């Protein structure tokens, strides 16, 4: 697994993070898809409730035939940077990190990152695209739910679509 890290958010000069601060729980938002604005909005809402850090991740699976670094820099890098920059704009005032993670298996890499960050909440979008991508992402989500000790939020529609849907106060969709 390879990673390109960069700090995000306000940082005080010469600040030293304590051991207790390093063990604080995080909210992790996995971005890089069509539902990124809704994923970031939900992650920000979770942050406001718990006052923790928000880490933005872009996970990119690299085929076994290609070297991780070259594939990441040439193929995945520009799109991943655009996705992170777009997701970082509404999160500028929230402390946390942004990271591009290049991996061979998305499911195990995501579980390892969640455990390493001691995340309590993970927000990601539902699988879209062709059947192969949907199958892999569904498998990753089920592996994540089984292997990570955190709450998993899967976003299925844009917040504008959810706002326009007819919903009962109980949260269930109304049938016409």
What is the element layout, followed by pairings?
Elements: E1 2-8, H1 19-22, E2 26-30, H2 36-50, E3 53-61, H3 68-88, E4 96-103, H4 106-117, E5 119-125, H5 131-147, E6 151-155, H6 159-164
Parallel strand pairs: 2-3, 2-5, 3-4, 5-6
Antiparallel strand pairs: 1-4
How does this structure look, described?
By secondary structure, the protein is α/β, with parallel strands linked by helices. Helix content is 43%, strand content 23%. It is built from 6 helices and 6 strands, in the order E-H-E-H-E-H-E-H-E-H-E-H. A 6-stranded mixed β-sheet has the order 1-4-3-2-5-6, with helices on both faces. Helix 4 (106-117) runs parallel beside helix 5 (131-147). It starts with a strand and ends in a 12-residue tail after the last helix.
Name some characteristics of this structure.
176 residues; alpha/beta; Rossmann fold; six-stranded mixed sheet; 6 helices; 6 strands; disordered C terminus
Alpha plus pi helix count: 6
Strand residues, percent: 15-25%
Give the number of domains.
Answer: 1
Per CATH, which architecture? 3-Layer(aba) Sandwich
CATH topological fold name:
Rossmann fold
**What is the chain-wise order of helices and strands?**
EHEHEHEHEHEH
Question: In one word, what is the shape?
Answer: globular
From the alpha carbons, calculate the radius of gyration and give it in angstroms.
Answer: 17 Å
Q: Assign a percent range to the helix content.
A: 40-55%
Instruction: Flag low-confidence runs.
Output: 9-24, 164-176
Span from first to last CA? 49 Å
Secondary structure tally: strands? 6
Round the mean pLDDT to the nearest integer and report it.
76
Strand line-up in the sheet with most strands: 1-4-3-2-5-6
Instruction: Determine the structural class based on helices, strands and strand pairing.
Output: alpha/beta
CATH class label:
Alpha Beta
Characterize the biggest β-sheet.
6 strands, mixed
């Amino acid at each position: 697994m390879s990673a390109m890290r960069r700090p995000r958010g306000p940082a005080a000069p010469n600040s030293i993070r304590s051991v207790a601060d390093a063990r604080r729980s995080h909210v992790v938002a996995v971005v890089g898809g069509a539902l990124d604005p809704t994923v970031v909005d939900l992650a920000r809402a979770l942050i406001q409730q718990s006052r923790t850090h928000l880490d933005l991740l872009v996970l990119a699976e690299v085929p076994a035939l290609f070297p991780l670094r070259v594939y990441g820099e040439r193929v995945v890098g520009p799109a991943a940077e655009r996705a992170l920059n777009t997701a970082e704009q509404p999160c500028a005032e929230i402390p946390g990190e942004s990271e591009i993670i290049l991996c061979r298996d998305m499911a195990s890499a995501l579980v390892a990152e969640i455990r390493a960050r001691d995340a309590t909440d993970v927000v990601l979008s539902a699988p879209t695209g062709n059947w192969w991508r949907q199958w892999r992402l569904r498998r990753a989500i089920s592996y994540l739910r089984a292997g990570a000790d955190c709450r998993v939020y899967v976003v299925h529609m844009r917040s504008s679509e959810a706002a326009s849907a007819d919903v009962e106060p109980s949260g269930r969709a109304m049938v016409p």
